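Dear H.,

Thanks for agreeing to be a second pair of eyes. The structure we're designing against is below in token form, covering all 232 positions.
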């Protein structure tokens, strides 16, 4: 009898621990998609610096940005990718745009990009992807990192991006698939939209062509880059 009671309490304790881990994973997942002013949100910004900075800088390189391009970063976070892209837009016509749904990230990036914003070289929007206030067919290059798995509707998001891009424009998506798989196993994402093939199918369905994923390596870190070309 005592053994049965002890076993029951062990099982209950394990179940409670599993529930706690699941709740924590869900909380972290929400903060990754939409950081807020909180301890978890602050920790997420540290994660961005450790995990995203290399991805964002490499996404910028892979975009092959020209000095007079109009470049858009989606889900820009603290602004690492924005800063890297701004250095390449040296021509007077060169312009940088950024969109992030998080007010916290918008304000943080705005501080980091204060000089470029004041000179009119950069414009940042705190906006939902689908509702971003950017004119149709005005963007040459788009990049984003660890972003698409948080979109409520992949096709709607892909369609919104395609709308603002010029014909022949290039989009680069950077991720570390190994890390994404681990996060998915902990239920940090909802559904199957984290899978690259699902995202790539959504891109193709709205008019992107030459959609492909390549393995890349930088500073001993292996990551994946998904390329897509906008066709009107």
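And this is the sequence the design step returned. I haven't edited it by hand at all.
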């Amino acid at each position: 009898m005592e053994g049965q009671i002890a076993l029951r309490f062990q099982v209950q304790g394990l179940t409670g621990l599993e529930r706690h881990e699941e709740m924590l994973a869900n909380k972290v997942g929400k903060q990754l998609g939409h950081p807020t002013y909180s301890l978890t949100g602050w920790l997420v910004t540290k994660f961005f610096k450790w995990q995203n900075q290399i991805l964002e800088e490499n996404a910028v390189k892979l975009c092959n940005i020209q000095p007079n391009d109009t470049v858009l970063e989606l889900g820009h976070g603290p602004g690492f990718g924005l800063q890297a892209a701004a250095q390449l837009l040296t021509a007077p016509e060169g312009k940088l745009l950024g969109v992030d749904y998080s007010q916290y990230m918008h304000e943080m990036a705005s501080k980091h990009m204060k000089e470029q914003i004041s000179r009119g070289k950069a414009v940042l929007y705190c906006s939902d992807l689908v509702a971003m206030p950017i004119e149709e067919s005005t963007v040459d290059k788009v990049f984003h990192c660890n972003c698409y798995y948080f979109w409520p509707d992949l096709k709607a998001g892909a369609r919104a991006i395609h709308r603002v891009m010029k014909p022949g424009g290039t989009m680069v998506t950077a991720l570390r698939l190994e890390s994404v798989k681990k996060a998915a196993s902990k239920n940090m994402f909802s559904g199957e939209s984290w899978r690259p093939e699902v995202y790539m199918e959504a891109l193709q369905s709205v008019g992107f062509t030459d959609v492909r994923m390549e393995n890349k390596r930088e500073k001993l870190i292996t990551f994946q880059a998904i390329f897509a070309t906008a066709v009107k």
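Two observations from my side: Residues 2-33 form the longest helix (32 residues). The radius of gyration is 20 Å.

Warmly,
E.
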